[in-house]
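note to self: the first set is below, dont mix up w the second
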Amino acid sequence: MTDTDKFLLLLHITAAFWYVIGLAVVQLSYIRGLQDDQGQAEAFNEASHYQGVLLVPGAIAVGFTGVFLWANVGYNLLTTGWLLALEVLYIVTLFVCLPVIGIGLRRARVGALKARRAGSAAPGNEADSVPLVFGSLATLLVPAMTALAVFQPF
């Protein structure tokens, strides 16, 4: 492994930590908002902030550094089986999970702000679990993607 490969691997691992920290802090802030009626709007604002600062940029950085790393190492991004499976899981994360998390956060935040303005607690509804469900799905995809990258099964 050359020095360039090692540097790209370091960048990729750093980006992965950035993404995972964002995923964790967004979900934890959202859960805090669901449990605390008084600080609900602040917790949802915090979750939205971390989504924009950590979660989405971290996910994009993982993709970019991964493409550069695997291309530099010499893998074909379109014909290597395990890498193709990894790319599909990444695309599901980036284009399904993250947008749905964002939509759910926005709905919860607007509902909490409306409730605060009206002077009451935000009403619970079926949309409350949407960011958690898709955040959990994105969380479960992380070990699957890691296993594909580490073990390169096919």
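second set (the one i keep forgetting abt)
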Amino acid sequence: MKSASQKKAVRSARRIPKKPTVADLLRARIAREQKLSPKAPTLPLTEKLSHINVAAARLGMSVWTLRHYACTGRLNYRRIGRRLFVTESEIARLAGNEVQAVNAA
């Protein structure tokens, strides 16, 4: 039988994290920058911005349609946090395009 001193749990060796290589650091930095960089071109801050829900209501379209337009590049937008905003000129452009498409058909 083991004595009390032998029964003591052996502490596990402290694990030292592996030093990251330069390539690992570069990959992490590129990934961070890709997350932070906007997909759409930057818009001037002089124009009034409307939330995408408001823009969809004004255009008589679904919010998901406008989100699809934003993802495919048909809509210029500004992302603030997780929310999408659209300029008034962009709403007017979309309203004009929709009217022309209806009249052409």
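remember for set 2: Residues 42-105 form a domain with the Multidrug-efflux Transporter Regulator; Chain: A; Domain 2 fold (CATH 1.10.1660).
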